[in-house]
Amino acid sequence: MPEPFGFLPVDKPLGMTSHDVVAAVRRLARIKRVGHGGTLDPLAMGVLVLCLGAATRLSEYVMATHKRYLATVRLGAVTATDDAEGQIIAEQPIDHLTAADVAAALSAFNGEIEQVPPMYSAVKQGGVKLYERARRGEVVEQAARRVWLRTELRAYHAPYAEIAVECSHGTYIRSLARDLGTALGVGGFLAALRRLASGAFDQPIAWEALQAAFADGTWQNYLLDERAALPHLPEIALDAANSAAIRHGRAIRAAHSAPEGALARLYADSGAFLAIAAYQGGAWQPVKVFQH
């Protein structure tokens, strides 16, 4: 029986780690190759895109897409982890804050900004994950990274601010919560988070519904293909000669030009998905080739 290929956008429940979901689907689907397109913390819910079979080779492109969130930020308090998992280590009064104050401070978090990851994160420094160093009591100077954000204050009912966020890959919503609290002079942490969309995926399958589909053998009906996962990459149909060249790892000079380094999805003369290719020096160079 051929290994399944495709993507499952799952509505990750509260309390499960992303690895928990991957491990469960690996067991239920009885396949080894299962990955995901962007981690969600245990206290976060929402869209977690699973990649199955050879689609795991495309996870980096899913991961690189923009994400949309609805975040609840608790103002007036600070935790060591920048979220509700950590104990509150400092508090400040917030009676003076208005919704206009919060919106004004939030407006600075739009466009490209420099953001420092939370100390409790999987970012590696010196080959060691930051959360491992934090658990040992180490304080590590971290480098800021450039990220892109679009934010909007949806509601403010003290001490909670509800914020809509669209952001680039590598953005930490916990850092946004922390930095917003700092900008307001009262501290803040992420109290709750729901991922509304991961790239093109915005209609996740309820975890209970997916489990039921595994039980009755219909789960593959939920699998989506690379067209659904990567609609932002243009599609190029090849003739037989160019299809053969790509299969053998050779670059092709096609009529479809693009900016240097741009990516595209290539399809064989049979119509089957063939490769991800990059436009380099006037030719399409295969980056990842798929054999069907």
TrEMBL record:
Gene Ontology terms describing biological process: mRNA pseudouridine synthesis; tRNA pseudouridine synthesis
Domain spans labelled Pseudouridine synthase II N-terminal: 26-173
Function: Responsible for synthesis of pseudouridine from uracil-55 in the psi GC loop of transfer RNAs.
Gene: truB
Annotated keywords: Isomerase, tRNA processing
Gene3D superfamilies tied to this protein: Pseudouridine synthase (3.30.2350.10), PUA domain (2.30.130.10)
Organism: Candidatus Thermofonsia Clade 1 bacterium
InterPro entries in UniProt: PsdUridine_synth_cat_dom_sf (IPR020103), PsdUridine_synth_N (IPR002501), PUA_sf (IPR036974), tRNA_psdUridine_synth_TruB (IPR014780), tRNA_sdUridine_synth_fam1_C (IPR015240), TruB_C (IPR032819)
Family per similarity comment: Belongs to the pseudouridine synthase TruB family. Type 1 subfamily.
Classification via SUPFAM superfamilies: Pseudouridine synthase
Classification via NCBIfam families: TruB
Record EC number: 5.4.99.25
Reaction catalysed by this enzyme: uridine(55) in tRNA = pseudouridine(55) in tRNA
Entries under Pfam families matching the protein: TruB-C_2, TruB_C_2, TruB_N
Protein name in UniProt: tRNA pseudouridine synthase B
Stretches assigned to the tRNA pseudouridine synthase II TruB subfamily 1 C-terminal domain: 234-282
Enzyme class, broadest EC rank: isomerase
Record-level Gene Ontology MF annotations: RNA binding; tRNA pseudouridine(55) synthase activity
Active-site residues, as the UniProt record annotates them: D41 (nucleophile)
Annotated ranges, domain tRNA pseudouridylate synthase B C-terminal: 174-218
